[in-house]
Fold this sequence. Notes:
Elements: E1 4-6, H1 15-21, E2 26-31, H2 39-53, E3 58-61, E4 63-65, E5 68-69, H3 82-87, H4 92-112, E6 117-118, H5 141-157, E7 163-167, H6 188-193, H7 197-204, E8 210-213, H8 230-240, E9 246-247, H9 263-273, E10 278-279, H10 284-293, H11 300-307, H12 324-340
Parallel strand pairs: 1-2, 1-10, 2-3, 3-6, 7-8, 8-9
Antiparallel strand pairs: 4-5
Amino acid sequence: MGPLMIDVHGTSLSQEDKELLQHPLVGGIILFSRNYQSPQQVAQLTSEIRKAAKQPILIAVDHEGGRVQRFRDQFTAIPAMYDLWRSSGESLATSQQYAYACGYVMALEVVSVGIDISFAPVLDINHISDVIGDRAFHHEPQAVASIAQQFIQGMHDAGMKSTGKHFPGHGSVKEDSHIALPIDKREKSTIFSTDMVPFTQLIQQNKLDAIMPAHVIYPSVDADAVGFSKYWIKDVLRNSLGFDGVIFSDDLTMAGAHYIGGYVERAEAAQAAGCDMLLVCNSRKASIEIIDNANLVVDNKSEQRLAKLVAKQGLDWSQMATNSRWQENVEVVSSIHELAQK
Length: 342
């Protein structure tokens, strides 16, 4: 698997899509709402992607729930993660039960249409961030870790690996890294003892299979945003925390990545910092520019890590309706919506 994760334009593949999929640097595809019409159509698309690639490829989607759920029609509506806490009567045990059901249903449905991973769960704290907000499980780090652990267990039981984001925590800085470069000026000790707690605990529990760093600068720790920082990725994640899973860059076309330079410079910097796979989303120009000009390598260690994220295909979509475990968990998920509206 190559180090680039790119996207495709529509609900089926163009000739240009097929050519890009065969490039040795391309090892992943991320799907968006524009790629979706129905479960049957997107299952056909993922099959077409694998056939066209002629090489191992990882297919991903952002399908956390709440505001960030790419497939809507016929898919179960997954609530925003903070609604699990609000709907539970602020019971940690009930929130965990809800989280398991949401993780299981989300993952089973996504895997059933040929997708390997959803970039979930969000391990940020619901504090002041506009872009995080109710995407987070809770406003306290220990509760985030406890509830997320059950969401991940549900994902794992459905055959999907987990991706914790946005390391070491995006919730305590207001700016949205899609449109700005957030700078979190808190002390290093505060960041490590609060925001990083869910990541640290879940790594220790061997629950996190992959991590996505934040496009945030923490100047008390390092001058670079996390996804471009050797200190954060190699010294903290790999060495101090002992994390040996996949590290994805966040989208290199986001405003939070602009300070590094052009698309080529961003891709090279992210790989040099230690990212295994580099996301380049919603810009065909950027994808081609990086493929044509960036000095990137296909790293054997990264390939081995990435291969572990490929989902074990179980049910296909046509079998879902007769699966009692899926039905039971869908009922739980539906009850969360009802309680959240009261």
